[in-house]
Design goal:
Blueprint: H1 2-41, H2 47-70, H3 79-87, H4 94-110, H5 118-133, H6 141-157, H7 160-172, H8 177-198, H9 218-248, H10 253-270, H11 292-311, H12 319-339, H13 347-364, H14 367-377, H15 385-401, H16 407-418
Helix pairs in contact: 1-4, 1-5, 1-6, 1-8, 2-4, 2-10, 3-6, 3-16, 4-5, 5-6, 6-7, 6-8, 7-8, 7-14, 9-11, 9-12, 9-13, 9-15, 11-12, 12-13, 13-14, 13-15, 14-15
Protein name: Chloride channel protein
Membrane topology: Multi-pass membrane protein
Organism: Anaerococcus kampingae
Length: about 425
């Protein structure tokens, strides 16, 4: 233990580095996304701009295709790669991959595809940890990788407590003093650094304060848990199953890779609301009620667009999209209850937020992190702990009953079976 205490300063330095790295990463995504959204706004009724918008997407696709072809460690969200590094299964050239992953990810995510920043943030953090571990060979490498991966999650969502729990539950997959101290030190240092330099504000701003759902109305949340659990099972089958579908398509790799860019681009020309990971769709209840038909369409559209991108292995994550899809599902459920006169209109937004936790829990199978994440993402404005706990537990139980594998565990097993040859030992 004395050795650990003497090494904690390294994890403070690592946290500062990760805070800077992921902060810059988020800014880069924002710049590309702003450009693409502005360009998209000029395509309405203009065939030339519409063509150029698709052309820009194809160009981004070609650039990122050759990055991923050159460095297979940049594929997908990156979290399974970090799990493999932690287990000693993969040896990754972290100095090369951290650059390639940064470029491929901010271009792909910023382009408007339905992928999120959190998976790449976790991988970038873990790669940074691996680099720093090289400066001190006397301390176990996995603690640098795992703690920095958790810190990447923290800065991506500005959710340090959820990140520490996610690190323990999903990255380290065990709990001991070393795991906690290294993760907490790195995560706190990264969050403070990012907050001081890039701004300290929750992922979801201007969330109104809601009254807690009364215990007499918890049957609403219980049913929501079943609904989000079933959606989580469907989500895993479609999104992960898309990988198998892509492999069977007899087309050149570049053509298959560009398909998500072109199809997403065409979808955005029809409905710009589908742009990006979907965070803006979480706010739909605040902007006035959408019809059930519109919400159902958005739910399936975002799952299919994510399946297109994620199934092909584009450099981007799934956590933000799965939270947004969960919110849309909660919106569908709450709108139906409102139409039946069972809840007031202002309750729709609250139920949408609760549904996010259920969806996260069913898919990733980290229920405690799901509860805390929603509280932190909303800056504490939403603190319905009992509702969040109930929906997370029920959704988790439903996913277990249907034997749906946890999302990243499934991806990791597939990586070990089918793509291990990409990594040098």
């Amino acid at each position: 233990m004395e050795k650990l205490y003497k090494k904690l300063y390294l994890f403070v330095i690592l946290g500062i580095f990760v805070g800077l790295l992921i902060g810059i990463f988020k800014k880069a995504i924002g710049l590309v996304a702003s450009f693409m959204e502005e360009f998209l706004s000029k395509t309405s009724g203009n065939l030339t701009n519409s063509f150029l918008f698709i052309l820009f997407l194809i160009l981004i696709g070609i650039i990122t295709f050759y990055i991923l072809k050159k460095d297979k460690d940049t594929k997908g969200s990156g979290i399974p790669v970090i799990m493999g590094m932690m287990d000693g299964e993969f040896e990754v050239n972290s100095k090369k991959t951290i650059i390639n992953k940064f470029i491929a990810s901010f271009l792909t995510i910023g382009s408007g595809l339905t992928v999120g920043r959190e998976g790449p943030s976790v991988q970038l953090g873990g790669l940074a940890g691996d680099i720093v571990a090289g400066f001190d060979q006397t301390f176990e490498r996995k603690y640098f990788i795992g703690s920095a991966a958790a810190a990447g999650f923290a800065v991506a969502f500005n959710a340090p407590v959820a990140a520490i729990i996610f690190g323990v539950e999903e990255v380290f997959r065990k709990h001991d003093v070393k795991t906690f101290l290294t993760s907490a030190t790195t995560t706190i240092a990264a969050t403070i650094t990012s907050g001081l330099i890039f701004g300290d504000f929750p992922s979801l701003i201007e969330i109104p304060v809601f009254d807690n759902v009364s215990q007499a109305r918890l049957w609403i949340i219980l049913i929501l848990g079943i609904v989000t659990g079933l959606s989580g099972v469907l989500f895993n089958k479609l999104v992960i199953g898309a990988k198998s579908v892509y492999k069977k398509i007899p087309l050149p790799d570049l053509v298959k890779y560009l398909a998500p860019f072109v199809i997403t681009g065409l979808a955005l020309l029809v409905d710009p609301r589908l742009f990006g990971s979907g965070e803006e769709l979480i706010y739909l209840p605040a902007g006035g009620g959408e019809s059930l038909a519109t919400l159902i369409y958005m739910y399936f559209a975002k799952i299919l667009l994510l399946s297109l991108a994620f199934g092909m292995g584009l450099s981007g994550g799934s956590l933000v999209p799965l939270l947004a899809i969960g919110a849309i599902l909660g919106n569908i459920y709450a709108t139906a209850l409102f139409d039946m006169g069972l809840i007031p209109a202002e309750r729709i937004f609250a139920i949408s937020l609760i549904a996010m936790a259920g969806h996260f829990s069913a898919i990733v199978r980290t229920p405690i992190a799901a509860i805390i994440l929603i509280v932190e993402m909303t800056g504490g404005a939403f603190s319905n702990i009992l509702g969040l706990a109930l929906v997370s537990f029920i959704a988790y139980l439903v996913a277990e009953i249907f034997k749906s594998k946890p999302f990243y565990e499934d991806l990791y097993e597939r990586l070990l079976k089918t793509e291990k040859s990409y990594f040098k030992h």
